[in-house]
């Protein structure tokens, strides 16, 4: 089993779009996938076709009340399992702050989740306690980035956080930086992309996710883009990303 957290404290860079569509693409390759939504916005939950407000148990019940994570797993219409989130998760930082082991809650809850090939965790745009929990529970971190002027700002904070948390989680590493919302006609985007390549080298995913309107439309229908329009550029890109990640997984396990 591999655990991958999708994180970047910058908002709107395509974390949730990546979490949902990567999960769907991996499931399309017959991998058994669990998506955990760790954002009170619950966008990943609704993006898979689940009704976030109607869920009986969410990740908030797991983290706050110690409910068994297995009991909060729901099969989604998107073809993979989901532990959902909604507004019940907001404020959890403050509730848990000061409690010992508050950073270990997710990791502890994930001890006996069953035989998944991939667990994908969608983080909120913040470096709060929830995101720290994800970093402690995960192995790899996928960092979606938009190729714009301020792209590199904030990345230093994220890298530093990852370095610091290696003490708690020696397995923690950046699995890859993913260029998202990419517009190849934009000169600045190309410049920033080249800068990212020289900065991160092999840590850059070769797959680039283009700006594609189908990716933006699909969540309104509660579907991954693979179900909404499987021949779209967005769907093609996320299938390619899944292939790249499966290949990496094979290399890592050798
Ligand atoms: N490649 C893309 N092409 C077009 N639209 C996209 C693409 N990726 C994401 N979007 C749209 O951009 C917006 C932000 O994307 P998304 O919600 O995935 O980002 P996020 O990083 O999860 O945001 P937040 O920080 O609020 O959690 C959404 O409306 C989404 O549909
Ligand atoms: Mg999001």
From TrEMBL:
Domain of life: Bacteria
InterPro entries referenced in this protein's UniProt entry, alphabetically: AAA_dom (IPR025669), DNA_Partitioning_ATPase (IPR050678), P-loop_NTPase (IPR027417)
CDD domains: ParAB_family (cd02042)
Stored Pfam families: AAA_31
Limits of the AAA domain: 1-174
Family: To B.subtilis soj.
Protein name, per record: Chromosome partitioning protein ParA
Organism: Psychrobacter piechaudii
